[in-house]
Known about the structure:
Layout: E1 11-17, H1 20-30, H2 35-38, H3 40-43, H4 55-68, E2 76-84, E3 93-104, E4 109-117, E5 123-132
Antiparallel strand pairs: 1-3, 2-5, 3-4, 4-5
Amino acid sequence: MTIQEMKIGDSASTVKTIGESDVYLFAGITGDLNPAHTDEVSASQTPFGGRIAHGILSAGLISAVLGMKLPGPGTIYLGQELKFTKPVHIGDTVTATATVSEIVAEKNIVKLETICTNQNGDVVVKGMATVMPPKH
């Protein structure tokens, strides 16, 4: 979508169940092998009681919404503010949603409220994205 096609309140989402392989692949790609994500014995000693997914893995689903749905292919991701509010456990289903909250047409900039929830409706990540939609 171009900026001319977008309006305040437009929204799009994507859904993914976070599997064990997702966590291990993400750990391998990033080099973040923190035991909280990769070692059940160690992670069982944390307040979470077991392994959790990397927070930024859930936040990465926001990128999928922006790049594939709203605004979609050709979008340039300029910035993201994030707050991780609850852990995501292996097996959780995360819904990432982006909603247009501000349009600066003269600069071709759009700000979107971003939120990730789990299968219980609990907010696990929230923030604000700044993007440049495709020009055509």
